[in-house]
Amino acid sequence: MLYLLVQQLLHMGIVRKQSLYSSISIYIGFAFGALNLMLLMPKIFSQEQIGLTRVLIDVCTLLATVASLGAVPVINKFFTFYNYYLKPDHNDLPKLTLLVSLVGYILFFLFTVIFKDLIVRKFSGNSPLFIEYFYAIYPLTFFILAYNMLEAFAWGLHKTIASNFLKETGIRIASTIILLLFAFSGISFTQYINFFWLPYAIAAIALFLIVRRTGELRLTGGISNVTRRLGRRMFVFSSYVFSSNVFSLLRKTNDILIISSLQGLEQAGLFSYATFVISFMEVPQRSMYAITTPILATAWRNRDMAKIQELYTKSSITLSIAGMGIFGAIWLSHNNLVTFLGPEWTSISNIILILGIAKMIDLITGVNNQIIQTSNFWRFDFVCSILVVIISVVLNYIMQKRIGTIGAAYADLITVALFNLIRYLFILIRFKIQPLNLKTAGALLLGIAGILLVQQLPFIWNIYADTIIRTMLYITLFGAAVILTRLSEDVNNMWRMMKAKVWKP
């Protein structure tokens, strides 16, 4: 029921069809993710082992971004230029970015070997399990890096449905299979970690085959005229945006790394659960980013400010509606989640609330990050990212030292609010556009009203029935209110299309 609402909310003009299918595949993936993290892992692993798997994913995602050396943002911004001016036989961008990423991976490997003693000192006290299985970062980082590269090309070739399915659904289905094998075959936790990289390898290989079938990517010899003309610009761009992306990812992952170092993998596991629950709110955002990035790049190339303003405004109201729909359903069932996990998880409720507010701030401001990164002012994003990540790391360390794990949630709220405020003001001042209007405020007020109303219901039968009924009631009330108040033209158009199909004579 929940994903049907989000499907309706994501249909905005040119991105309607792809957003729909991407959202469906992503939500199927999140269902498998919930099965893995919420149901299977607590029954199979200890809280410390669960924390290790979450830390490995966060660490390797960060390392893969670093190892790319800026190749991915270059593909996102310049692949449309290469496709426009060159035939596949002469397009040398795939070869160049592959070489750069291979060099980056080798440098990452050497770095971890040289500084392994420092890493051991930082984590051996509170997270000895991370040190024991440190070797697992090498294959996992490699395949995440490979997938990120292929995903960038897939976006440029408008294969977003396939890339989103593999990333959000395929990896999680493969992970479910491995977890079930672990549960029923009696393999050890060490053997499980030894195969932890396998789902990512399967996804990378599958996406490679999909992209290769298009015939648009070939490892050509020589240097093209486009590279000679844009080479210097690409190098400067990649240097800035690569650094910006690394800092941005560090801002998102430093909290769990600091938790692991200061408080141990058990608390990292708790925080990762809260993060996963809130990540449901990111689904429409991820889908929209995947679709709008190449469209924004093309709009900047054509100097089409009207298209950029349209995407900016519609992304804000669409993501606001989707975000309130999902957050309301999550918050109304947070007590049931604690009951399911156990009394030692009680503090997860406050963390979910704070992280949810932070994510709503991020959603309300629309595709501000993509607008800046695909424009000629991407250097600003670099400077901004450095400032915010420094603030994030300092806040996380200080607040976790003082108030424990919940300090990481407050640090995230402050940094997300600051980051989006800076981006919002920059786009407003430089481009004279902004995404917010009274309809955005209306979506927030309707969502809050729906939450307060449904909260008045007494507990219904058991945690499963209570969760389902509260979710369905809230989504129905909120969805009806959004449609009746006509907050979004795209939502209302989709509603009319659905009615026409359901009640077609």
Structure, described:
This protein has 23 helices and no strands. With 505 residues, the chain is mainly alpha-helical. Helix 8 packs antiparallel against helix 9 and helix 12 packs parallel to helix 19. It is globular. The N terminus is likely disordered.
Task: Provide a quick synopsis of the model.
With 505 residues, the protein is mainly alpha-helical.
Number of helical regions: 23
Question: What gyration radius follows from the Cα positions, in whole Å?
Answer: 23 Å
In one word, what is the shape?
globular
How would you classify the helix and strand content by structural class? mainly alpha
Helix and strand succession?
HHHHHHHHHHHHHHHHHHHHHHH
Proportion of helical residues: over 70%
Number of strands: 0
Query: What fraction strand?
Result: under 5%
Highlighted features:
single chain, 505 residues, mainly alpha, 81% helix, 0% strand, disordered N terminus
Tell me the layout of helices and strands.
Layout: H1 2-9, H2 16-44, H3 47-67, H4 71-85, H5 93-114, H6 116-123, H7 128-132, H8 137-156, H9 160-185, H10 189-194, H11 198-213, H12 225-262, H13 265-278, H14 283-301, H15 305-331, H16 334-341, H17 348-364, H18 368-373, H19 378-403, H20 406-431, H21 438-454, H22 463-484, H23 489-502
